[in-house]
Amino acid sequence: MRFLMGFDPTDPGYLQITTNDRWIAVHPVVLSMIGALGLTVAPERIQFDDIGHKSGHYLEAMGLFSLLNVPSPMQIERHEPVGRFIPLAEINNSDDLQRFMTDMVPFASSTFASGRLDSLYCEELVRNVFEHSLSTHGAVVSAQYFKKPTVQLSGGHRVGI
């Protein structure tokens, strides 16, 4: 909700992304929304504030800078994401969707017996973007598994489309 309250659409040709110095908690839905917004803006018109919190590496690990085609302000040690997260991806056609689903099935199956069913729900949501959104950039997706419950969320999978 804070993301939406702080969103200012007065200049659609410019995107400023700010973070809190004390904490960063970005749900994959919000990350996918930022990615989708950023794809509508020229990379030179995207500005990040100084990402000072140690959790800022999450934005790099999830592929935000790469998706937006902007230089990353940090270097991180890459880890295999299988079963833990699916970085941001732009899905524009059936081949892109198939690559996403290849990652989604083991991700969803890593903790849920209904993993195949969960991944079918995600596939249908992405197809709905193709059919109903009028997007010129397709769908932007990401996912993360939260092992431990937090104050706001129970443990489990979070998917952003």
Helix content: 25-40%
Decide which structural class fits the backbone: alpha+beta
Number of helices: 6
From the spread of the alpha carbons, the general shape counts as globular
Mean pLDDT across every amino acid position: 78
The amount of beta strand, in percent, is 15-25%
Task: Using brief descriptors, characterize the structure shown.
single chain; 161 residues; alpha+beta; three-stranded antiparallel β-sheet; two-stranded parallel ribbon; 6 helices; 5 strands; globular
Please, could you describe this protein's structure?
It is built from 6 helices and 5 strands, in the order αβαβααβααββ. Helix 2 links the parallel strand 1 and strand 2. It is of the alpha+beta class and 161 residues long. Helix 5 runs antiparallel to helix 6. It has one domain. Helix content is 37%, strand content 16%. The strands form 2 sheets. The protein has a 3-stranded antiparallel sheet. A two-stranded parallel sheet has the order 1-2. The chain is globular. The longest helix has 18 residues.
